[in-house]
Amino acid sequence: MTSTTEQFADVSTTTLLRFATAGSVDDGKSTLVGRLLHDSKSILTDQLEAVEAVSAQRGQDTPDLALLTDGLRAEREQGITIDVAYRYFATAQRRFILADTPGHVQYTRNMVTGASTADLAVVLVDARNGVIEQTRRHAAVAALLRVPHVVLAVNKMDLVGYEEKVFATIAEEFTAYASDLGVPEITAIPISALAGDNVVEPSANMDWYGGPTVLEHLETVPVSHDLTACPARFPVQYVIRPQSAELPDYRGYAGQIASGVLRVGEAVTVLPSGRTSTIAGIDALGESVDIAWAPQSVTLRLTDDIDISRGDLIAPSASAPATTQDVEATVCHVADQPLSVGARVLLKHTTRTVKAIVKEIPSRLTLDDLSQHPEPGQLVANDIGRVVVRTAEPLALDAYADSRRTGSFLLIDPADGTTLAAGMAGAAFASRPETAEQAPADDEGWDF
To answer: Which residue, 3, 116, 171, 420, is most buried by CB atoms nearer than 10 A?
Structure first.
């Protein structure tokens, strides 16, 4: 019998690679991206002419390829990346979606955004400076977000005389650190983004290196997008009730399948209510189908008219997730204001948003040695730590290790809608220590 994975291999496994670049300020991320686009002939003539014109105005003899991605005026003036710059390009072997993320510690939140859907992260290091705190932070974020492949690009090798020893020392230190974080695959490549060494073409200056160039690795790294192998999850986005003369009794539940496969006739459970029914029909692109799989957007029809609304989750009864009001997770704090024990927040999980209280912050990760600082009391901008959140209503979360889509959530300030933290449910770097539950008194309906 053909397995589900084999049956849908043609739609779930593609030639698309999503990857993100990260590194400290002035490590050369934008130059690397510009070099990739330029040397792979993935930029238009008028784009190159515009970059050449701006570079000439600045008195530069050669085009500043970083300008191909630094699109904001403030970025060009300061020579740094502030926003996430997305670029799309392709070679004969593969299509790419690239997220050039900021390196400054102030914009670590943007790296979380860019790497959250990445299959691979390229972490740049200045060969003159080696592994620094921001390098460790980027490695920790990549590990926290379960990015399966990490490339260490040791840049500016031309400024250290293309010395093999310099590269080997940095590669060894970073690999040991990232491995301790649980990064499954690390590939180190010595490059000079400015000169083009080992970016697209092999370098004649580093004959001691026999590995792939950056582009060769991006084109050949194995990437699986097989969401159909995971249990089916269908967050309800919208309830469709036309109540027209043609469709007087139509009731459909629209959304995008987050993972797995759904079939007509399959028994399903609606969460968090726990009510059960059977899939009576699946509508996709205006037509009825017998089967649908992630990440298709479809409308489900059930045999029973039960109370279902936006935010509910439909899953096969045989593999439905458990619901909980106590969420234990690792979060990356991205807001300027601290996140403290007792804080009232909104928790957004897939299409569902509920009230919640931060009950505990058991630990904060110390990036230097990966130790856990116990009971910090609060997390500030760019901190990574463990939290325990109590929600007003049950949530159907998976562990983030099992599903990046249904295991992730956001913590939001209910006063102004500011995103406070990006959370990953379940275990991450360390298990939460057992502590007595503390329930602060509340008289405004937030004590659950």
So the answer is: 420
